[in-house]
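Field reference: sequence -> structure
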Amino acid sequence: KKINEEKYDMNDYLDLCFIWYRDVLLYKAAGSEEQLIFREQALEIRRQAEKSTYHGLQQILEAIETADRRIRANVNFDLTMEMLAMTIKENIG
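Structure field:
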């Protein structure tokens, strides 16, 4: 709700989320921080990579893409973000 109230650019927000979980997946697969975009957050990325499965991370990335498509199609914003948050919560840790 706060994102909607503050009128953040959702494309930017979802892009950052996608890049974050891409980094988590990359770290999980490679075990290296060299190619991370969020290198300064490597400790948190490592922690999430250890808790997550490959399948779970793929589910999150797909959910972010789905949320982006839904927002562009003017689907209810709050519901779209709630579904995304639930998918992330189910697949991390």
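Note: The first helix runs from residue 2 to 6.
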